[in-house]
Design a protein that fits this description.
By secondary structure, the protein is of the alpha/beta class. Helix content is about 45%, strand content about 10%. It is globular and about 55 Å long.
């Protein structure tokens, strides 16, 4: 766990080592520092900072391009400070042209993340499983990936190229863009919103020479596969961007509904962590020890 006085491990190198595993790397999504701590305490090896969840938590609004670079990087910085795990972050479109992408990569790297994914949507972008997406020309996307690869200071910092072209232009176009991004130096590929098992098999077969991302999004366009099937297809990473967001939302809705009925949390408290359990979760024992050490 990310103790206040302990130096952080090298996130980019740690993540690259995990990608060497024959099994898919699991990346539960979080949208704040508390979520990152819970993911680490649950025994996972990587944290994924979700753009969808960040927009929902910071603004209470959908993922439709309302957040900018500084807001996303600030959230990434808080998350990386809360965990010793490598963090992979959503960097949307890079927030502008190729020059903006250079600043984006360097800002995320300075925030301590292990890697990012960049997509080919036109601003304002949308969640990958929403309707009405529009993508930039392929050469512009490829230029952004080349800029991102050139901008990183640590060669282990992972650049994941995401294409959203499947929805507006079909799978052939998405595969062409993915191959072009690979040739531009991307470390991994993310073909978003594949719609059936046949499409997943084709992507896995035609892009078998580079790590691939599977997006396990509840209610999204991609079928909800088991981890065994994902492993059989040889996807290297499984991001689960909104599982914790949906779980937290339902838990809060149920608690608030009960409090509304009763007037106090008297009948809702049994489903909650105790106060002491929660303060242990967020590191109060460490603070008490440090207070005694430096008193």
């Amino acid at each position: 766990m990310a103790d206040l006085l302990r130096s952080r491990p090298n996130g980019p190198a740690a993540f690259r080592a995990l990608l060497e595993s024959p099994d898919p790397v699991l990346l539960p999504g979080c949208y704040d520092a508390l979520g990152a701590r819970l993911i680490e305490q649950a025994g996972f090896d990587v944290v994924y900072m979700t753009g969808f969840g960040t927009s929902a938590s910071l603004l209470g609004r959908p993922d439709v391009g309302l957040l900018g670079l500084n807001e996303m990087v600030d959230n990434a910085r808080r998350i990386t400070a809360a965990t010793d795990l490598p963090v992979i972050a959503d960097a949307d479109t890079g927030y502008g042209n190729q020059i903006n992408v250079i600043r984006t990569v360097q800002a995320y790297e300075q925030a301590g993340v292990a890697g990012i994914h960049l997509e080919d949507q036109m601003l304002p972008k949308k969640c990958g499983h929403m309707e009405g997406k529009v993508v930039v020309p392929q050469d512009e996307f490829v230029g952004k990936i080349r800029a991102a690869v050139s901008a990183r200071r640590d060669p282990n910092f992972t650049i994941i190229a995401r294409t959203d072209a499947r929805a507006p232009h079909g799978l052939d176009e998405a595969l062409d863009r993915a191959r072009a991004a690979r040739d531009a130096g991307a470390d991994a590929l993310f073909v978003e919103a594949l719609q059936n098992d046949d499409e997943l098999e084709r992507v896995a077969s035609e892009l078998s020479d580079i790590p691939l991302v599977f997006n396990w999004a509840e209610g999204g366009k991609t079928p909800p596969l088991t981890i065994e099937r994902i492993s059989e297809l040889r996807f290297a990473m499984v991001i689960m961007p909104i599982s914790t967001l949906l779980a937290a939302t339902r838990a809060m809705q149920e608690a608030l509904a009960q409090i509304k009925i009763d007037g106090t949390p008297v009948n809702a408290v049994s489903a909650m962590p105790t106060f002491n359990e929660f303060t242990d979760t967020i590191g109060l024992p460490e603070v008490i020890d440090l207070e005694a050490k430096f008193a």
